[in-house]
Amino acid sequence: MGTDHIEELRIGAAGPFEAALYWLIAFYPSISADGAEDGVMVLRSSLLSRSQMEDAWACALANERLLAENAEGREAVLSSLIA
Q: What is the mean pLDDT of each run of 10 residues along the chain (83 residues)?
């Protein structure tokens, strides 16, 4: 019986990190995340390649950044309407 090959990807905890990580794991259940000793998260998957995990992480992080920018924009518009 052979062993599964596990790909790893280290990611930094900057920006809208937690929400992006939540959605990444929700959409890709084959990905697990563990904290590393240096404050960096390690993503692991036996089904996705490192490149696929990098792409998925980039999409999840970009999505969270866009959502944050959208929320800031709505807040600015509402503030100007109330003022």
A: 72 72 88 78 90 92 88 84 83
